[in-house]
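Posting this for the archive.
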Amino acid sequence: MFMELLEEIFEKDVGIQETPCENYELRRAARAVLFNKEDLIAFVYVSKDEYHKLPGGGLKVNEGIHAGLAREVLEETGCFLGVVAQVGRIIEYKNAQAKLQKSYCFMAKTVAGSGKPHFTEKEQSKGFKLNWVSLDEAIDLLENDFPTDYTGKFIVKRDLTFLRKAKEMLSDNKTIDDLYK
């Protein structure tokens, strides 16, 4: 799948001393800027590490991007989604973890579901909590997040880039429905 590369993020970009790394394990992930009927987006707060994130996560082996996106969004929001547009992709070089992560982001709308997340035990232990906020509020929250862990620093930079691109796509008073037409 071709998708615009929005950014490559290195440790130095998130305020971490570069760790040498020669061999990376590839991790593919999908995320969504997911709008509900009130034009609010799903936003997950990770209380243990003090940051917010878009719903989504890692793809399973041989899982397609759209299938993985649908699975992850359903787990973290309790909602089924309809993909509206591609936002872009970001590559993260997590040297200290020897991981190269490729994240694909989409704008989407909720189409059904309970709205009740089904967080994994690991997510529950990190204090995941689902909120619905405006796009501008989500950007503001991320701009004021200061994660306490390594991964969170990457997540904040990555998701802020995705949200700013989504806002740009919705400029000139466009709505998510305008992109669908």
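The longest helix spans residues 150-169. The chain has one domain: 5-180.
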